[in-house]
User: Fold D-aminoacyl-tRNA deacylase from Ricinus communis.
Amino acid sequence: MNCYCISTLSSLTTLRNINTRPTRATTSKLQIRAMRAVVQRVSSASVEVDGNTVSEIGPGLVVLVGLHESDTDSDADYICRKVLNMRLFPNETTGRAWDQNVMQRNYGVLLVSQFTLYGIMKGNKPDFHVAMPPQKAKPFYDSVVEQFRKSYTPDAIKDGVFGAMMKVNLVNDGPVTMQLDSLQSSKSTIDAVQEP
Assistant:
């Protein structure tokens, strides 16, 4: 006999729904509604636009930032805090792996806006309707960059050119690549599970 102990569920009906196959309505509610970041530990990285290098860093992190249409300042705060505190670097003094964050190493962070992180495949063609629209996304992305600069050394934070066709060159160190979604994702999942 299977035993479940789920404190966030309010009824047996909801518990029964967890054990059944999700309906189309439930599946759509489970869709991630959060800011998304793909974080890569790099030895070096740069961004080119029209053949010109617009940003570059040495060792550090490249962060591809995807904005969902429902993102708020709290999502930006969460992503900024988590990225800067992710222990993705070894401690050369103690020999411990996964022990230091980018700030402890005084490394750079290269932010790159990437709406394609919210691409949904419709057949063989990507659909980007859940990504934040460009007219809203540009000022929001600028505020994300500013949040990183306020939270760390401003000169250590670089970014690409919003909306431009960019060539991102990087040497992934490890390779180490992590995907991070803001807290809204867990909230929307709980809401979907709780719905009768």
In short: The domain at 36-180 is CATH 3.50.80.10 (D-tyrosyl-trna(Tyr) Deacylase; Chain: A;). The first strand starts at residue 36 and ends at 49. The chain has one domain: 36-180.
